[in-house]
Amino acid sequence: MVETLELKRTPFHERTSRLSVAQNWRRWAGYAVVGSYELSLDHEYWAIRDRAALIDVSPLMKYLIEGPDAARLLHKVTTRDIYKMGVGQVYYTGWCDEDGKLLDDGTVSRLSDQSFRMTSAEPSLRWLAMNAVGMDVRVTEVTDQVAALSLQGPKSRAVLNRCCNDTLDVLKYFRLMNTNIGSAQVNVSRTGYTGDLGYEIWVEAEQALPVWDALMEAGDDYGITPCGILAMDMARVEAGLFMVDADYTAANHAWIEGQKSSPLEMGLDWTVNLNKKGYFVGRKALEREKKSGSAWKMVGLEVDWVGLERLFADVGLPPQIPGMAVRASLPVFADGKQIGYASTSTWSPVLKKYIALAHLQRPHYEPGTVVTMEVTVEHQRRHAPAKVVKLPFYDPAWKKK
Amino acid sequence: MPSNHYDAIIIGGGHNGLIAGAYLARAGKRVVVLERREMVGGAAVTEEIFPGYRFTEFSYVVSLLRPEIIRDLELPRHGLKILPLPSTVTPMDNGDYLAAWPDHEPTRREIYRHSPRDAEAADEYGRTMARAAKAIKPVLSLVPPDPTSMSVRDVLGLIKLGQYAKSLSEKELYRIAKLVTQSSADLLDEWFEFDPLKGTKSASGIIGTFLGPRSPGTAYVLLHHYMGEIDGAFRAWGFAKNGTGGVTAAIAASARALGAEIRTGASVKQVIVKGGRAAGVALENGDELHSRVVMSAADPKRSFLNFVESKHFPDEFVEQIKNFRVRGSSGKVNIALSGLPQFTCLPGESPLHRGAISISPSMDYIERAYDEAKYGQFSKNPYIDMIIPSMIDRDMAPPGHHVMSCFVQYAPYDIEGGWDDSKRDSFGETVISTIERYAPNIRKIIVGKQVITPKDIERIAGITGGNIFHGELLLHQLFFLRPAPQWADFRTPLPGYYFGASGAHPGGGVMGAAGKMAAQEVLKDWR
Question: Does the CB of B66 have a partner CB in chain A at under 8 Å?
């Protein structure tokens, strides 16, 4: 049974594998996806920030939630007010356990009055089913049936306008629409994981390849570039977007209480609607936390380059930092005492800054606070000065325009 | 304060002038930057010469822009994006090519294909040059001390320099001594055998100079190209979004945000001198602006021979500036294209179209091109450094169309009989037919072209002699000798009059160091 030992292939594998020069494959939810197509990340990264990047995001877990009680289920499970959600709208949301600790985060799209699509990073079928007891709702996993492409970058709209039957000019941020690419029916949402102008295209797996081809052809004049998940990982840090089990531990994966994070601790206050009607999972705990304030906060850290340069100059070197996002915990200090940790750090080519997503303890999480972050300088642990900043780090004007 | 009174007036809205303005505004000074043209940028401008096609008219790459300037002025926040310019390809006469890729392995394999020996040498050469650049780099950010002066500042500066030199190993000092005196041909012959490789590497030693690969001193210019390498992640080598006009637009935005005023269409006639001090400027339109400090970010000739009456300077200084060599040696041809040029050696579209394309088949080819220039002719077979900006930044041309930027050397400023329209045309024609040898479809896809001679650089960008560095990077015009002995510290013999442009230390290349350091010296003297 060799087949079961292999990682699954996405519906785009026939294309992505042929384009992959670097043979740099990564695991994502049981699938093999391209880490980077080229030997260097530069060209793929800049496709996200200046052109159009085509990213295979098919491994995202996808669920169809249908029936008279579909809205009721999602209203109960997520922290957003689903009753206020219009058809064609997309919400980003986290969902919690009874203690108000995050299990996962993803998007909820209202496809019609009684049907929704939910995406998640981790399997969520059991959690949804448990919460749907007594409701008139059907939850179907469609991860393998629905292929997904993320087209990100300032030129992404121009590319879609060339190959979709309808204009994308009317599609607002976090809205979706149905259209056609060639003969394939697609659903396009103005969403993504890069903090740039961008869209995600949802299509039946059988139609995946013609859609990929049409996008690549339409994008040729705009420098469309197949992009792996490593460049996307840099972009998502710049966008202040985090990832389950990299930047926070799913509450159901945690071994100890201290590993868990609430949406308020993750800075998702804007998604936690405590004014919404009725019960939702984690409500009481979140209300308590809102009142007493959070002990932790996820914030941005900007490393002070002059300070970093000085540490390296001490050993006669220019600063050596990795040219990609690093998912490794780096201790953060204030007045010599550890007050938190950075979970993902990266060099930001567009900002020309060394940045990190960090969990900091009260009161050190206020923007402007000066802390230090551990860096390794010639095998020695040193502390580089850094400043707490508001997320996102990068927020171009054209993202929502 | 009346509206025409400032703390500081800066003449020239190129990158150095704007940077100086930004730094002074940042220090709380009331500052105005005066630009002769209707747009800022100087020689770092982007213009839409043909509708839809945007040319990065003069300078076309960013390589040495100082990281501290990018940080201090928050240029990324003001729109600066430096896009990768990952490769260099040299088309060969036999239809093959030599490529340098952004990754070590493919580059090594590529050189190996032509010369296994050179493949190994290239690694060691790269490391040696980078080490030498690292050793010499701290000197670039020093205000050059005057070795003949006994002033406290100069003596302290010399001690610092001496201490630094002492920190280098003997081997490093010898290497540097050799590099600053050698010709690039001698240096490269020591390392390599493959002609296109030597030709292409030697080309970076002659850019902007009126010298050939066999002229002594050119090896030092090669070294300049490794300076950027040691900035690591901060390396600014690439193509600026929207061309180099994008760099100056970001600097101007930052300067304005910091409170600097920028006036365009403000041509300076003369610096006003009162009581032996610079006290303001008179504009061509008759307006007078007053200030405590005036800084020129124009070229040395205009700064010292045009803007200020020579009676305010010692004769010797005037003489030195007159002798400062600013011979322009290069031209530019910007081409709007309806498609991608098809190079015989690169059929279709290759990743190499996103990098530099260098017409430099051998060192002899370039030296011969120089021979013609020595005697007042433009090269019949010139060295050309091409990039296709629209392959890097899709906003430079309409979708599917392209623009090509061709830096051409040699085109002497003092051409026999002087430049005129017909000479410009035949210069443009020479460039097109040179490209045509390697990309036969070029003529068919030309939508329009702009031919720029050194005379045009002078006329449009206002740089005397049309030299892209405001003065050649010759050993006798560098460090404490730039622009003149005793006056390399951004001050001038006229109190209150400062000088911060490419003609000052450490020289040109959209580096910005002169503008920044000059502003800092102004602030030091303020107390």
Answer: no
| pLDDT (0 to 100) of residue B220 | 83
Size of interface A-B (CB pairs under 8 A): 61
Return the pLDDT at B209: 87
Same domain, B371 and B429: yes
Domain identity same for B142 and B164 = yes
Q: What is the CATH number of the domain that holds B362?
A: 3.30.70
Q: What number of other Cβ atoms are within 10 A of residue B137's Cβ?
A: 18
Contact B335, B449 (CB under 8 A): yes
Which of B81, B102, B393 is nearest residue A42 as measured by Cβ atoms? B102
Angle at B123 between CA B118 and CA B129, to 5 degrees: 110
- Which of B201, B234, B267 is a domain's end point? B234
Domains of chain A plus CATH, in order, are: 2-60+143-227 (3.30.1360.120), 62-142+262-292 (3.30.70.1400), 296-398 (2.40.30.110)
Q: pTM to 2 decimals? A: 0.94
Write the residue in B103, B106, B394 that is nearest to A155 by C-beta. Answer: B394
Pairing of strands A90-96, A115-120: unpaired
- B126 Cβ under 8 Å from any chain A Cβ: no
8 Å CB contact between A16 and A22:
no
The C-alpha atoms of residue B276 and residue B510 are separated, in whole angstroms, by: 33
Q: Which of B66, B70, B83, B239 to mutate to test the interface with A (most CBs of A within 10 A)?
A: B83
Q: Which domain holds residue B145?
A: 116-234
Say how many domains are in chain B: 3
Q: Which amino acid is at B468?
A: I
B122 in the same domain as B220: yes
Closest-CA distance, B170 to chain A, in angstroms, reads 17
Among all residues of chain B, which has the CA nearest to that of A320?
B232
Q: Do B390 and B432 lie in a common domain?
A: yes
Chain B residues with CB inside 8 Å of A158's CB? Answer: 399
Q: Is residue B92 part of a domain?
A: no
**A157/A285 Cα distance (integer angstroms):** 41
Chain A CB within 8 Å of residue B232 CB: yes
Whole-number Å distance between alpha carbons of B307 and B284: 11
Residue B77 domain flag:
no
Sequence-distant contacts of B203-206: CB under 8 A, at least 24 apart: B203/B358, B203/B360, B203/B366, B203/B383, B203/B385, B206/B366, B206/B370, B206/B383, B206/B409
Express each pLDDT in A316-353 by its tens digit: 888 888 889 999 999 999 999 999 999 999 999 999 99
> What mean pLDDT do residues A139-153 have?
98
- B173-200 pLDDT tens trace: 888 888 888 999 999 999 999 999 999 9
Name the residue of chain B whose CA is nearest to A162's CA: B399
Distance from CA of A39 to the nearest CA of B (A): 7
- B211/B283 same-domain check: no
Query: A111: pLDDT confidence band, cut at 50, 70 and 90?
Result: very high
Q: Quick one: tokens of B315?
A: 């004769």
Q: How far is A222 from chain B (nearest CA, A)?
A: 6
Q: Considering only CB atoms, which chain A residues are within 8 Å of B396?
A: none
Interface contact flag, A352 B70, Cβ < 8 Å: yes
Distance CA A59, CA A15 (A): 16
Same domain? For B349 and B434 the reply is yes
For residue B28, give the CATH number of its domain: 3.50.50.60
Q: ipTM value, please give it.
A: 0.92
Domain boundary among B234, B252, B284: B234
Q: Find the mean pLDDT for residues B477-496.
A: 88
Query: B-chain residues within 8 Å CB-CB of A221?
Result: 394, 399-400
Closest approach of A142 to chain B, Cα-based (Å): 37
Encode pLDDT of B400-418 as tens digits.
999 999 999 999 999 999 9
The residue among A346, A352, A377 with the most chain B CBs within 10 A of its CB, best to mutate, is A352
Mean pLDDT of A70-82: 98
Nearest CA distance, B107 vs chain A (angstrom) = 12
B309 and B361 co-located in one domain = no
